């Protein structure tokens, strides 16, 4: 990683807990500079504004998280287990950092204001990755989609929609974790071929 990239990554990593603690509106560039251990002048050399910094942080978080999601889905093993692990990676990378903050709602709304395109692109990639994993599992005979009447893309979109609903109630180890486990159990039961039940 180049020195400039390392500096930007350090600033963005330092900014994340500051945003989680104070929310977007109350966080100042001075707060972020202090957390990063740099001067405000150095911070402004890297990012022109708090909005630019927030967008860059969103882009970085989405990029790193989606790389992890893809890696998890590319592993071997049961497709439902891999999907559950991919969803967990998605939540841990993009929802958990703010999920337990009292400023979560504001931060998710801010993200949609400044980085909606990044968020939509990541969601589209997630659906494509889930659809690909389900399609491959169907080809191998690991799952059966006949009973559900759905296509891999339909199921992938349903999983993503369930995640969207669950994320608004996210608390690590809380009811949303239970909800995702329930969703995975239902998928497992619905998609397991009769010959393997």
TrEMBL record:
Metal-binding is among the record's keywords: no
InterPro entries: DNA-bd_HTH_TetR-type_CS, Homeodomain-like_sf, HTH_TetR
Annotated DNA-binding residue span(s): 28-47
A GO MF term: DNA binding
Keywords on record: DNA-binding, Transcription, Transcription regulation
Gene3D superfamilies: Homeodomain-like, Tetracycline Repressor, domain 2
Residue stretches making up the HTH tetR-type domain: 5-65
Protein name per the record: AcrR family transcriptional regulator
Organism listed in the record: Rhizobium lentis
């Amino acid at each position: 990683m180049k020195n400039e990239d390392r500096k930007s990554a350090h600033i963005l990593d330092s900014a994340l807990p500051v945003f989680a603690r104070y929310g977007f509106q109350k966080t100042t560039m001075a707060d972020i500079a202090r957390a990063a251990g740099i001067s405000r002048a150095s911070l402004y050399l890297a990012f022109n504004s708090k909005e630019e910094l927030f967008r860059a942080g969103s882009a970085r978080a989405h990029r790193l998280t989606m790389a992890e999601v893809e890696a998890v889905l590319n592993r071997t093993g049961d497709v439902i287990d891999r999907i559950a692990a991919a969803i967990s990676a998605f939540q841990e990378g993009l929802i958990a950092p703010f999920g337990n903050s009292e400023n979560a709602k504001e931060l998710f709304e801010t993200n949609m204001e400044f980085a909606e395109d990044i968020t939509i692109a990541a969601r589209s990639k997630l659906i494509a990755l889930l659809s690909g994993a389900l399609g491959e599992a169907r080809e191998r005979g690991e799952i059966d989609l006949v009973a559900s009447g759905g296509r891999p893309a339909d199921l992938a979109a349903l999983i993503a929609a369930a995640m969207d609903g669950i994320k608004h109630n996210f608390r690590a180890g809380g009811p949303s974790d239970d909800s995702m486990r329930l969703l995975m159990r239902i998928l497992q039961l619905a998609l397991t071929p009769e010959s393997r039940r």
